[in-house]
Write a structure and sequence with these properties.
Number of helices: 13
Largest sheet: 7 strands, parallel
Helix content: 40-55%
CATH superfamily of the largest domain: Glycogen Phosphorylase B
CATH architecture of the largest domain: 3-Layer(aba) Sandwich
Strand order of the largest sheet: 3-2-1-4-5-6-7
Radius of gyration: 21 Å
Order of helices and strands: EHEHEHEHEEHEHEHEHEHEHEHEHH
CATH topology of the largest domain: Rossmann fold
Mean pLDDT: 91
């Protein structure tokens, strides 16, 4: 199967990674076109992607697709890059079928629609995590069910299985390790993460010492976090706190005894990997609800200080108990289902999204 994979956002690059690995094992190496976080990810994994800039033109993407003459174009989805949209457009022009793998539960419309790009360009097929996401896409874009494939989450399947195996038989860290994952509301701000972290630290004083790693989001400004460590003396002398901005999330999850932070995919990965997890969402106005957080981590979401005071002791208690893994259809045979969807798209060459 001749294929080209496109990705910019980390979620898309992560989701496509198990598919790329399986193709490479079979000697069927796909062409990889990446920008931004996915380019960094795939280089770290040794995939050697062809890197393009955020300002890449549609003409260049069309020439790339024409050059490699694929049987199918497979993409992630991005909320801040047009790379995948340009790939769908180029493939349609060249009559190559496309399938977009949707890696998340939120910002669905933003993954496919860009202001100022004229007519909305959609992929021929969609690979989605679950039925709820499928219904959102059907409603947003009037897509027929035959073009939407329930593939689950190949990355979540991969990372959960990998971490379960690597963490088997491990003992608690001395002192125990907490990883805090932040997430911005808007680019370059870290205010909400800093507020949540400070509230968490206040509740953790009774449980010191701890080793604490702060993982800012790639879109966050680091200076507020550097300032937190320099100026906050509440945990000095007992807990060791450090920034882990350059550490991959999977490496942090490997050493974590407990995980906390703002709603993000990293917290979902932690929970599926059997790591006690706490979501901190302190009554933020207009915060988009993540259905996966609400469903899989129900009961472990602190929406105010009162709930945080209640849930921190519970988090510490769960740290000392056997791991509890989330059982869900979204991680069952997800990679196999994704390949089935890709082959369906490839064989239905003249399909259209609308």
């Amino acid at each position: 199967m001749r294929s080209i994979f496109f990705a910019n956002d980390m979620g898309g690059g992560n989701l496509l990674t198990p598919l790329i690995e399986q193709l490479r094992k079979k000697g069927n190496v796909p062409v990889l076109i990446a920008s931004g976080p996915s380019s960094i990810l795939w280089k770290r994994l040794g995939f050697c992607p062809n890197e393009v800039s955020h300002a890449v033109s549609g003409d260049l993407i069309r020439r790339i697709v024409s050059k490699y003459n694929p049987q199918v174009v497979v993409t992630g989805t991005s909320t801040r890059s047009t790379l995948e949209i340009l790939a769908w457009s180029a493939a349609k022009y060249l009559k190559v079928p496309t399938i977009a793998m949707v890696d998340g539960w939120v910002k669905i419309e933003e993954r496919f629609v860009r202001k100022g790009m004229g007519k909305c360009i959609l992929p021929d097929h969609f690979g989605v995590i679950d039925q709820e996401t499928a219904e959102v896409i059907k409603k947003l874009f009037s897509i027929c069910s035959a073009k939407i494939h329930l593939v689950g989450h190949p990355h979540l399947q991969r990372i959960a299985a990998q971490l379960e195996m690597q963490r088997a038989g491990r003992s608690l860290g001395i002192p125990p390790v907490l990883v805090f994952f932040s997430s911005p509301r808007t680019d370059h701000e870290a205010t909400h993460g800093v507020i949540a972290f400070s509230a968490l630290i206040d509740q953790l004083k009774l449980y010191a010492p701890l080793t604490i790693f702060i993982k800012p989001h790639p879109r966050e400004d680091l200076s507020p976090w550097e300032n937190v460590i320099k100026t906050n003396v509440s945990f000095r002398g007992e807990s060791i706190v450090s920034l882990a901005s350059n550490s991959p999330s999977d490496e942090l999850l490997l050493v974590a005894d407990i995980v906390a932070g703002l709603p993000s995919s990293a917290l979902i990965e932690a929970a599926f990997s059997g790591i006690p997890t706490l979501v901190i969402q302190l009554k933020e106005p207009n915060w988009e609800t993540n259905p996966a957080i609400e469903y899989y981590l129900s009961g472990y979401v602190a929406r105010d200080i009162r709930e945080l005071k209640k849930l921190v002791p519970d988090l510490i208690a769960r740290m000392k108990q056997p791991s509890v893994f989330i059982e869900s259809p979204i991680i069952y045979s997800a990679t196999a289902r994704a390949f089935k969807a890709i082959n369906h798209a490839r064989l239905n060459k003249w399909s259209r999204s609308r």
